[in-house]
Write a structure and sequence with these properties.
Strand content: under 5%
Distance between the termini: 35 Å
Order of helices and strands: HHHHHHHHHH
Number of strands: 0
Oligomer: single chain
Length: 230
């Protein structure tokens, strides 16, 4: 149970800090500071959680990561569903807290949708968005599998490397899809956005569920055959 609570807390922090930053500063590619601040907020959230809950649950905080770790033999099958459920619930709490704070505080949500992912950057093209999410998640999950592999000794640097990689994929991805690479991070904001009248993120939500899961699975396949098998 401790592992599931850790995943719940970790995903809450990721959504609260990452989406919260996007809502505050905006993440339009034309606004360089807001763009980079949002990328850093997501990346630094992972760094913080890796060094706090990492020893408890591995700090997946992402169903795509959980799938990749499972497929690479890094976790028991019985933990997969509880991990993913905990992550989604943590994301919902993060979005709920942001909704309360922004509403009560009268703060403008500069994303217009609780930091939800969308296809505006790819002109609404679902295939372009799907391909973007597959590639970005592949890079992210492959890095996680490699840097945490028992074959290599990255020691205390692993959490920093993973966080920087998440920042890295956000830098290119924000302007295209808002960068999901994480179904839990996408589901909660999309539903909260729909509840306030912005249905676009919910309509495109399947892209941000399927894309990251496919990318995570592909990363595990490559890891198993290229790195672990070496």
């Amino acid at each position: 149970m401790k592992k599931y609570v850790a995943e719940f807390i970790g995903t809450f922090v990721l959504v609260f800090m990452g989406c919260g930053t996007a809502m505050l500063v905006g993440c339009d590619a034309a606004s360089g500071s807001g763009y980079l601040l949002t990328a850093l907020a997501f990346g630094l959230s992972i760094v913080a959680e890796a060094y706090s809950i990492g020893n408890v649950s591995g700090c997946h905080v992402n169903p795509a990561v959980t799938l990749g770790v499972y497929m690479s033999g890094g976790m028991d099958k019985k933990d997969v569903a509880p991990y993913m459920i905990s992550q989604v619930l943590g994301a919902f709490l993060g979005s709920a807290c942001l909704a309360v704070i922004f509403t009560l505080g009268g703060v403008e949500d500069k994303t217009g949708g609780f930091g939800a992912n969308a296809l505006a950057g790819v002109n609404g093209n679902a295939f372009a968005g799907l391909l973007t999410e597959i590639i970005l998640t592949f890079i992210f999950v492959l890095t996680i599998l490699g840097v945490t592999s028992k074959k290599f000794n990255h020691g205390n640097l692993a959490g920093l490397i993973i966080g920087l990689t998440l920042t890295f994929v956000h830098i290119v991805g924000i302007g295209l899809t808002g960068t999901s690479v994480n179904p839990a991070r996408s589901i909660a904001p999309a539903i909260f956005a729909a509840c306030t009248g912005n249905a676009a993120p919910l309509a495109a939500l399947w892209v941000f569920i399927v894309g990251p899961l496919v990318g995570g699975a592909l990363a595990a396949v490559v890891y198993n055959n290229l790195i672990a098998a070496d």
